[in-house]
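Regression report. Comparing outputs from two consecutive submissions.

Submission 1:
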Amino acid sequence: MTTPSEGSEPSEDPAPSRRPRQRKQVLLRLDPQVYEALARWAGDELRSANAQIEFLLRRALAEAGRLPGDTGPLPRRGRPPRGGGPGAAPPP
């Protein structure tokens, strides 16, 4: 019997260099007036309330020096750019 390090199969890297695309889901309870104020602010900046919460949390973490260096960028809003993937419409 061989151990995984002795086998001929390549070993998987325990720390992949790319994060999974799935986003963490959390339940958040807010005072209704706080949510309404947040939703108005988000609308003013053309964001969803969820995107506004993430934006504010990231900014607070960065200001406190607690945002991990390998944190990916905020997901892009709106439609993907033209020619951005399979099945996309060809440029005019």
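Submission 2:
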Amino acid sequence: MINIEKLQRDLDELPEEAQELLIDFVEILKKRYSSSNQQETSENLTLEERRAFLKLPLSEPRHILSQQAEEMENHYRQNTDWKEFLAGNIIDY
């Protein structure tokens, strides 16, 4: 369970710039998890959201990209239509 009071104290101790980054990050998370279609959400990010993403500590984008890579791996394991493109001969034109 999240201790809201401790979280509030921790936030209050951060510099204003870090607090603003957290606010931006929370907005990104709210939009990401409020939508049932993750791909649609990522295509509709505003410029401010994209900038906030770029300002995140390096571990956060790595975590997000890791999750996306796992999702794509699962997608390609379940949907094997892409293998048909690899089965034919290569034709030089």
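Expected: both submissions complete independently.
Actual: both completed, but the second showed a warning that disappeared on reload.
Relevant detail on submission 2: The mean pLDDT is 80.
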